[in-house]
Amino acid sequence: MADHDDHEDFKPASTPGYKPTAAKSADEYAKLDAEDESLARWKASLGIVPGAGGDTSKPKVTVLTLELDSETLPPGKKIAFNLSDTQRLADTKKHPIIIKEDVDYNVRITFKVNHSIISGVRYIQVVKRTGVKVDRMEQMLGSYGPQAEAYIKNFDTDRSPSGMLARSGTYNVRSRVVDDDGEVYADWEWSFKLAKEWEKD
């Protein structure tokens, strides 16, 4: 049953009437309608140019960091995960991240597109406490072409829960970056607790 629930939780929302097109490489997109000058300029602005295919030995997408930012954070304090640091992520199960209750915050994700064109990419997050789902967030990241620099996407502002009940227990989060075709680019778990104040470093 849990596996079925997880599958449904992480199924991207569908847009009525939208059907993903067959995947093409960056080179294939670059060569499409090559004689259309304005289209060529637009594609170039997305990094879609002949030879922009990138290193196909790497995954299409590499998610680098997930960061939580709030104007209420103490000066110099930063809450960020480096997704290559699997030990740090695993450590949050024993030592959850502390998030202050009842504050506005933003989530920011940094990722690289190594090759191919990716479309309809979104971040999905499911939050559970004592095994019961308490929240699900889905944020569209968009469509991108490969480039050397990382992309940064800031999510909409959200507000952390508050109250004694919200502060009790640990929240376990599963985060996933997935596209319209259901291809999973990143999948990781982490934990947090709500408190009256931010944790001091």
UniProtKB/TrEMBL annotation:
<comment type="similarity">
    <text>Belongs to the Rho GDI family.</text>
</comment>
<dbReference type="GO" id="GO:0016020">
    <property type="term" value="C:membrane"/>
</dbReference>
<feature type="compositionally biased region" description="Basic and acidic residues">
    <location>
        <begin position="1"/>
        <end position="11"/>
    </location>
</feature>
<dbReference type="InterPro" id="IPR024792">
    <property type="entry name" value="RhoGDI_dom_sf"/>
</dbReference>
<dbReference type="GO" id="GO:0007266">
    <property type="term" value="P:Rho protein signal transduction"/>
</dbReference>
<keyword id="KW-0963">Cytoplasm</keyword>
<feature type="region of interest" description="Disordered">
    <location>
        <begin position="1"/>
        <end position="24"/>
    </location>
</feature>
<dbReference type="GO" id="GO:0005094">
    <property type="term" value="F:Rho GDP-dissociation inhibitor activity"/>
</dbReference>
<protein>
    <recommendedName>
        <fullName>Rho GDP-dissociation inhibitor</fullName>
    </recommendedName>
</protein>
<dbReference type="InterPro" id="IPR014756">
    <property type="entry name" value="Ig_E-set"/>
</dbReference>
<dbReference type="GO" id="GO:0005829">
    <property type="term" value="C:cytosol"/>
</dbReference>
<comment type="function">
    <text>Regulates the GDP/GTP exchange reaction of the Rho proteins by inhibiting the dissociation of GDP from them, and the subsequent binding of GTP to them.</text>
</comment>
<dbReference type="InterPro" id="IPR000406">
    <property type="entry name" value="Rho_GDI"/>
</dbReference>
<dbReference type="Pfam" id="PF02115">
    <property type="entry name" value="Rho_GDI"/>
</dbReference>
